[in-house]
Amino acid sequence: MSTPNRVYIARLAGVAVFDPNGDQVGRIRDAVARMRPTQRPPEVVGLVAEMPMRRRIFLSINRITSIDADAVVLGSGTLNLRRFEKRPNELLVLQELLDRRVQLDTGQAGSVVDVAMECSRGGEWALTRVAVREQTSRLARRGHLHQVEWDRVRGLGTLGENRGTANLLAVLEDMRPADLANALQDLPDARRNEVAAALDDERLADVLGELPEHDQVEILAALDRERAADVLEEMDPDDAADLLNELPPPEQDVLLDLMEPDEATPVRQLLRYASGTAGSVMTSEPVILPPDATVAEALARIREPQLSPAVAAQVFVTRAPLTTPTGRYLGMVHFQALLREPPADLLGGVVVNDIDPLRPTTPLPEITRRMATYDLVAMPVVDRTMRLVGAVTVDDVLDHSLPRDWRDRDAMSAAPATDEPPQDGGNG
């Protein structure tokens, strides 16, 4: 194996995995170690890689030909694409050891920030060294970092919940919200709730939108109500309404009352619409400008980084007021049309209104048919007086057209991922 003799596992998180042909097959998310009945350090039996569609698979350590900070390379052979499942005597290093409160043999208390695996002359990989940060008073910046042998650390062999979250969050911080949501589903419920609560409000709001409904509800319930209301305020109104719809009406009312009125109002409006209609799936905050705004102003608005690609793909033009429900809806302008027009031109001169807008009661199958017919990524939703009340985007349609449990890892694992035969040996 062409690789350093010692590898710190936290540094492998997110590293790309390549097959012998140089094609990327996924990214490393953890390492799997097997506990031993003796005092010998745990044996590393493989790595966990995340593939497209959020499926996590086991890579036997014997299949890996190279490990470094930039890539993990596999040897030849058939890849086992069955979903990884941890066995009773196995340990997920990053998930279970990072932030573990331990004690050095000197008596100094600390927490685990990384774990190193080493390859022996016989080719066996084992967890041999632990990076431990000393616990200090709050006034001190950071405690001293010790890198010590496995057997010099007490508390690694127990599965207590005496852990923090800082180092695990550091490993997860660069993940996209959907990938972080996927990682949270692999954690035990208590640990998942603990890590979720440690995220800031905006980050947690993004992650909640990528989780199955039952996980959203459990995480929200684990927060105090004031914090839950703050997180709901950071969510897109349609996502917040979907989440609140999973709660009993009395709990909905409590959380809505705790939210800022201007944040709660659009959510309350969305909750009034029947499930499976344009009103129930639309966003109430599309990009809206008046007809006397310039093309340059419209381009500046759609460049705002917090906008999703589907929302930023077009500008809706209305009379004042410009918050939903707006004044009279006049039409929309796609961003490609904006790029072709002089920056000083007014939107009123380039607006398009030859496609009938949706009504809040339009059913989802009709929305899907019309968006496919006209190759649109978003459609306006207007009330009986032609006021814009929101817009349905293609991601809204996909979210509500897929099976209800499509985000659920357990449900996904029930279906086979491939017809390929599994490799010999390894986990799974």
Automatic annotation (TrEMBL):
Stretch list, region Disordered: 407-428
UniProt domain CBS: residue ranges: 282-350, 351-409
Pfam families: CBS, MgtE_N, SH3_actinomycetes
Keyword Ribosomal protein: no
Family annotation (InterPro entries): CBS_dom, CBS_dom_sf, Mg_transptr_MgtE_intracell_dom, MgtE_N_sf, MgtE_transporter, SH3_actinomycetes
Keywords for this protein: CBS domain
Gene3D superfamilies: CBS-domain (3.10.580.10), MgtE N-terminal domain-like (1.25.60.10)
Protein name: CBS domain-containing protein
Organism this protein belongs to: Micromonospora halotolerans
Higher taxonomy: Bacteria, Bacillati, Actinomycetota, Actinomycetes, Micromonosporales
